[in-house]
């Protein structure tokens, strides 16, 4: 069975995930450390998971529970890498599909940015979330769910 895990604290596409999951009858795990209250959803297929506060606690929970049949929605590059290491699919909220071909350079770029910030260089931040990102995300999520379901049915 395919499940969707959302790294939820800063995720702008939770509602879109809920709609796609409902169409495919999938369970969604909304994982948060509780620092930003997330409105509960009255749907038994949407599981609200609140972990303890602290760096990467939600990421650790997702990485521990995700399987190769699942999808993670995250903008966190290290978490995406951990999911890919378990052969799961990982998708950013702007529709970017993380793959073994692009995750290494993303991790390297993240590390370079961290180093530059430590040196005091202003690196800017991510671009703001646009309406086109939401559309691109919906297409990418639908594609990822279809691929995950096909792969899961082949394993049986």
Search tags:
alpha/beta, Rossmann fold, six-stranded mixed sheet, globular
CATH topology: Rossmann fold
> Any idea what the CATH architecture is?
3-Layer(aba) Sandwich
β-strand number: 6
Q: How many whole angstroms does the radius of gyration measure?
A: 16 Å
The biggest sheet, with number of strands, parallel, antiparallel or mixed sense and barrel status, is: 6 strands, mixed
Which percent range describes the beta-strand content?
15-25%
How would you describe the shape?
Answer: globular
Helix content: 40-55%
Sheet with most strands: strand arrangement: 3-2-1-4-5-6
Distance linking N and C termini: 10 Å
- CATH class, anyone? Alpha Beta
Global mean pLDDT: 89
Helical element count?
Answer: 5
Low confidence ranges: none
Helix vs. strand class? alpha/beta
Total discrete domains: 1
Order of helices and strands: EHEEHEHEEHH
List the helices and strands and how they pair.
Blueprint: E1 3-7, H1 14-24, E2 27-32, E3 46-50, H2 57-65, E4 71-73, H3 77-85, E5 89-91, E6 97-98, H4 103-118, H5 131-155
Helix pairs in contact: 1-5, 3-4
Structure explained in plain terms:
The chain has five helices and six strands. It has helices at 14-24, 57-65, 77-85, 103-118, 131-155; strands at 3-7, 27-32, 46-50, 71-73, 89-91, 97-98. It is globular. The N and C termini lie close together (10 Å).
């Amino acid at each position: 069975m395919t499940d969707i895990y959302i790294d939820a604290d800063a995720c702008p596409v939770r509602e879109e995930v809920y709609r796609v999951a409902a169409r495919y009858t999938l369970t969604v795990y909304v994982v948060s450390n509780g620092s930003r209250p997330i409105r509960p959803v009255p749907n038994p297929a949407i599981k609200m998971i609140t972990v303890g506060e602290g760096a990467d606690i939600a990421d650790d929970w997702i990485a521990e529970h995700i399987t190769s049949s699942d999808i993670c929605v995250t903008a966190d590059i290290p978490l995406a890498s951990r999911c890919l290491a378990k052969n799961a699919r990982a998708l950013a909220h702007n529709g970017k599909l993380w793959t073994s071909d692009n995750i290494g350079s993303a991790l390297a770029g993240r590390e370079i940015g961290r180093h530059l910030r430590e040196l005091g260089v202003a690196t800017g931040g991510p671009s703001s979330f646009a309406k086109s990102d939401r559309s691109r995300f919906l297409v990418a999520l639908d594609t990822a769910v279809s691929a995950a379901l096909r792969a899961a049915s082949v394993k049986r």
